[in-house]
Amino acid sequence: MIRLLLVLATLVFFVLCALAMRWGWRNRVRRQSYLPAFPDAPEAEPADLLLPEQHGVYVGTTLAGDWQDRVAVGGVGLRATATVKLAREGLLFDREGASRVWIPAESLRDARTDRALAGKVMGIDGLLVVRWQVGDYEFDSGFRGDDKDVYGEWVTAVRSLAGQS
Q1: What would the pLDDT profile of 2-30 be if each residue is shown by its tens digit?
Q2: Which residues contact 143 (CB under 8 A, 6 or more apart)?
């Protein structure tokens, strides 16, 4: 009988934890309702890629300058396996099981390598982070590629597309 009560108590505890996480995420969405709508991804795949597409994990999007303030609205805060593609029109995170994140070229501001974003901490220069702007707000989106040796090329190409040369 005691074993059954302990199992039930453990199950109740885990259900309460899951509900608390869901409640926290919904509150974050409500708090971030002031953010502008994000650009819709184009129907067609970007043509004329500037670099070969890269496979890895889309880590998430945060408000620029705060590596832990994950954006919950618009679905851009959800982590997923993804492919990143860079074309003259912009940058596309094609996520599996989640909506695609599209950053038009005119919204790109900068790119860098970093070690942490959206609560995900990697080794030094383990993430490719792209800064972009919608309206008056800047965002950082992170990608952990399978091949980190190409990050330098990506940083240079995104900066060039953003007009930073």
Answers
A1: 999 999 999 999 999 999 999 988 888 88
A2: 54, 56, 57, 58, 59, 82, 84, 93, 127, 128, 129, 130
